[in-house]
Amino acid sequence: MEDDDAEGNDGYEEDEYEEEDNNEGEGDQDKEKESRPFVCGDDGKRFSRTSDFIQHCLTKTEEKPFTCAVCGQSFSRSGHLTTHRHTHTGEKPFTCDTCGKRFRQRAHLRRHHLTHTSEKSFTCSDCGKKFKHSSKLTIHRRIHTGEKLFPCAVCGKSFILSTQLIQHQLVHSGEKPYSCADCGQNFTYSFSLSEHRRTHTGERPYSCVDCGKTFTHSSSLSQHRSVHSTKSFTCSDCGKKFKHRSSLTIHHRIHTREKLFPCAECGKSFTTSTTFIQHQIIHSGDKPYSCADCGKSFSRSSYLSQHRRVHSTEKAFTCRDCGKTFKTSSSLTIHRRIHTGEKLVPCVECGKSFTRINAFIQHQLIHSGEKPYSCDDCGKRFTQRSNLTTHQRVHTGEKAFTCANCGKSFTKKGYLSKHRCSHTRDQTLEGRHK
Question: Is the pLDDT of residue 324 over 80?
Answer without folding.
Answer: yes
